[in-house]
Specification:
It is a single chain. By secondary structure, the chain is of the alpha/beta class. It contains 10 helices and 16 strands. It folds into 3 domains: 133 residues, D-Maltodextrin-Binding Protein, domain 2 (3-Layer(aba) Sandwich), CATH 3.40.190.10; 87 residues, D-Maltodextrin-Binding Protein, domain 2, CATH 3.40.190; 67 residues, 2-Layer Sandwich (Alpha-Beta Plaits), CATH 3.30.70.120. 30% of the residues lie in helices and 31% in strands. The longest helix is centred in the last third of the chain and has 20 residues. It is flat, with a radius of gyration of 26 Å.
């Protein structure tokens, strides 16, 4: 059937909708890349990354990923080049990006603790407080945040951008540094002491404001975030199944973690039930022998990919 002149064919409208139903997402390249792709894998998304390409493939045709430095992602999201991206909150604050903060995702390359940006000086330095930095030289990758911090304390100092290895620049090149750390081990290894914390940062899912206002894109982002959070929630947890006779049931239930009610199912033998629960993997290691002694048998322990309340 021909389309009347002056009208748009239904097939063309459908093709336009299909093209628009693509979510352009920024994936952090570098230190967070492996942890991010692993998290997506556990959430059900498999990325294939070529060593020479910044455009990975993914087994979801509605996603269009781009690998970028985490520091660049907030700007591209704010400007609408990307619909969304994962990056540290420190990067958002540093470039003052106008984006929607949709979710905090507590994972990183080393720990689940926030990444701290700290003011540090040599252990034997005479600098004891931020006021002692008046007229001094400071190196950091977080220039704007550092300048605002100094201004809030009424301190004027020279703040220079550092391209890396910031901790080795004191005391010979600069008087102090503002450096990011998860554990503080690198600072301690260079005999640096922390005077103050300027900013705590975690990984965030950020979105362009127009993209967030689009119903389809927002729902797509919310669905992915739900799965990512489910994968994070499952970290360190296992499922545990066992068979228990009714006469031993009370003793077995008494050994299980109190915060979680187990699932109890009747077996074909009316005198026996199946008990299933979720618990930390380390707890299972210590608990299974106790449960065995209490009368449970037929244990099956299995890993969890996602736990969604």
């Amino acid at each position: 059937m021909e389309t009347p002149p002056g009208t748009v064919s239904p097939d063309w409208e459908e093709r336009v909708r299909a093209i628009s139903r693509v979510l352009r997402i920024g994936i952090p390249k570098g230190s967070l890349q492996e942890a991010t792709l692993s998290l997506f894998k556990r959430a059900g998304f498999t990325f294939s990354v070529s060593s020479r390409s910044y455009y990975p493939s993914v087994d979801d045709p509605e996603l269009e990923p781009t690998l970028l430095r985490a520091q660049e992602i907030p700007r591209y999201v704010a400007e609408g080049v990307l619909d969304c991206g994962l990056t540290g909150w420190d990067n958002v604050v540093e470039c003052d990006a106008d984006v929607v903060d949709m979710a905090e995702l507590l994972y990183s390359k080393a720990t689940t603790k926030p990444y701290r940006w700290v003011l540090a000086v040599p252990e034997d330095s005479g600098i004891q407080t931020v006021q002692d930095l008046q007229g001094k030289r400071i190196a950091t990758e977080l220039v704007n945040v550092t300048k605002k911090y100094l201004a809030s304390h009424g301190v004027q100092a020279s703040v220079e951008f550092s391209w890396g290895a910031t901790e080795v620049k004191v005391p010979y090149l600069v008087d102090a540094i503002v450096e990011g750390t998860e554990t503080g081990s690198t600072l301690r290894a260079h005999r640096l002491k922390i005077l103050d914390t300027l900013l705590e940062s975690t990984t965030r899912w950020i979105a362009n404001r127009d993209s967030h206002a689009d119903d389809w894109k927002r729902e797509k982002m919310e669905s992915i975030i739900l799965l990512l959070r489910g994968a994070l929630e499952a970290d360190g947890l296992v499922g545990l199944k066992m068979n228990v006779s009714r006469r031993d049931l009370a003793a077995v239930i008494g050994l299980l973690p109190a915060m979680k009610r187990p699932t109890i199912s009747q077996l074909s033998d009316e005198e026996w039930v199946a008990v299933e629960t979720i618990l930390p993997e380390r707890t299972a290691r210590d608990l299974i022998p106790q449960l065995k002694r209490a009368g449970a048998e037929g244990f099956v322990e299995y890993p969890l990919l996602k736990v969604i309340p």
